[in-house]
Amino acid sequence: MTVVQEEENVTAGSIRVPWRIGTRGSLLALTQAGTVRDTLIAAGHDAELVVVKTAGDLSSKPVQQLGVGVFTSALRDELAAGNIDIAVHSYKDLPTAQDPRFTIAAIPPREDPRDALVARDGLVLGELPAGAKVGTSAPRRSAQLRALGLGLEIVPLRGNLDSRLRKVSAGELDAIVVARAGLARIGRLDAITEALEPVQMLPAPAQGALAVECRSDDSEMIKMLTEFDDAATRASVLAERSLLAELEAGCTAPIGAIAEVVESLDDEGRIVDELSLRGCAAAVDGSDVLRASVVGAPERAAELGRELARELLDLGARELLSTSESAVNPPATDFSNSSPMENNQ
User: Fold this and answer.
1) Catalytic residues
2) DSSP 254-276
3) Terminal CA-to-CA distance of the chain, rounded, Å?
4) What tens-digit pLDDT sequence spans the chain (345 residues)?
């Protein structure tokens, strides 16, 4: 692609050319945004990447100490100011509270949302010895790993994917657990020793999905981006995040969810699409994990998410999450411009 300099930029109608796609500067973020850019270029739209530094990139503190929106607020600020036209987010990093300034105009087809184990000597999870050091950045993963009762030592983990992988190859850790989607996007599926099935570990809501966001008043951009939206991914993510919102929890809470649109037969034997949603809420110490599931029509995605959340609440999720929150979340700076619900991290 030929990079067009600022003084050479022209507009097509009210759309600036080339489209400026805001992204974080990590390898993973650049790769994710690059796939969106390449898709747009293949469809005949000129586009370029603009790197934006976020608070999460400038700090080594655990994410739960930094606050909601730590990886997304700077991108949104640049978008609101008109310095970029599109922002590409890892959807799971976005606050669940909707910001009226922006519209998620496209959700591309999702990568495999499962978590993945990268372990020394090619070991799978059940082969790790008691006391093995396993690194993870997420209370959700920590809670579910502890609940398996394998006697593992769970240690905090931050840094980009390459640095996390090096901790295993250098022998600092016996294993790490990360999102499979991230390894797929940077071409490191070879490092995976086991993809963790949802029965072992439910992924984070919206894991593996991208959110392509623009300004809500940019009707032409919304119209153009909508053609790249994947309906099944949107329904799945909507269900998962509706569950998260109904539980009044954010992206660092020990909550897992996975939804998928599958073919089924109705009462008359016709093939129809159904949305299957599974969710869990866990105590961060692994002492308890509440699980539930629901099935319904994809157009009821948001309702299904709320329904499943209420079932988890009936099972005792509020008390479980309250205990976990006090254990892992000290007071944090809020970067999200979100509702009070989003501050309960």
Assistant:
1) 93
2) SEEEEEEEEEEE-TTS-EEEEEE
3) 41
4) 333 333 344 444 456 679 999 999 999 999 999 999 999 999 999 999 999 987 554 444 444 444 445 678 999 999 999 999 999 999 999 999 999 999 999 999 999 999 999 999 999 999 999 999 999 989 999 999 999 999 999 999 988 899 999 999 999 999 999 999 999 999 999 999 999 999 999 999 999 999 999 999 999 999 999 999 999 999 999 999 999 999 988 767 899 999 999 988 888 889 999 999 999 999 999 999 999 999 999 999 999 999 999 999 999 999 888 876 655 554 443 333 333 222 332
Cα separations (Å) of 222 from 96, 104, 108, 314, 328? Answer: 20, 8, 14, 39, 38
How far apart CA 340 and CA 345 sit, in angstroms, is: 10
Whether the Cβ atoms of residue 172 and residue 314 lie closer than 8 Å to each other: no
Measured in residues, the chain has a length of 345
- Structure-block tokens of residue 59: 């700090």
Rounded Cα distance, 71 and 144, in Å: 24
Pick the closest to residue 250 from 328, 198, 146 (CA basis).
328
